């Protein structure tokens, strides 16, 4: 098994053990930290994601963006190009699923490309000390943001998703900032049902 596949498997196994209370605590932590980043307050057009597979829950992030009158965009995966298109999102937006079966807005009207975003908040499966990201393996984020120098990239996840031993490839996307919610989960332990630390 390759290094990245082992890391993906381990990180996702740990993530699946988390319960609703733990997931909500982590999401609130991420939103609080995001609100302290100056680049967030400068940004107007912000790409977020629809959480799946126990990723950091995005409702607190959506609420924060709405409160601060940000323009929110959700990604739609395009299999043919293996890239992401970003579609406007509001609370009353009708949703469907994209070609990867991930919820996204139903209409492509007023869609923008990653280069039009001021900031993108991106889920990680794993990361390392140099802020390089491992995703699910499809390369959609890597391709989409490879040449978007103006967009501030923030990777979000849990502290047990940091694996400093992984060596990034040239195409692996590097974040400008990482926000990792604190847990007491040891990624090197055989025990994977430890609980998040309570604040």
Task: Tell me what you see in this structure.
24% of the residues lie in helices and 23% in strands. The protein is globular and about 45 Å long. With 199 residues, it is an alpha/beta fold. The chain is built from 5 helices and 10 strands, in the order αααβαβββββββαββ. The chain has a single domain (3-127, 134-181), classed as 3-Layer(aba) Sandwich (Rossmann fold). The strands form 3 sheets. Strands 3-2-1-6-9-10 form a 6-stranded mixed β-sheet. Residues 190-199 have low confidence and may be disordered. The chain has helices spanning 3-16, 20-34, 38-42, 59-67, 140-144; strands spanning 45-47, 71-78, 83-89, 95-97, 103-105, 119-123, 126-127, 133-134, 152-158, 177-181. β7 (126-127) and β8 (133-134) form a beta hairpin.
Chain-wise SSE layout:
Elements: H1 3-16, H2 20-34, H3 38-42, E1 45-47, H4 59-67, E2 71-78, E3 83-89, E4 95-97, E5 103-105, E6 119-123, E7 126-127, E8 133-134, H5 140-144, E9 152-158, E10 177-181
Parallel strand pairs: 1-2, 1-6, 6-9, 9-10
Antiparallel strand pairs: 2-3, 4-5, 7-8
Helix pairs in contact: 2-4
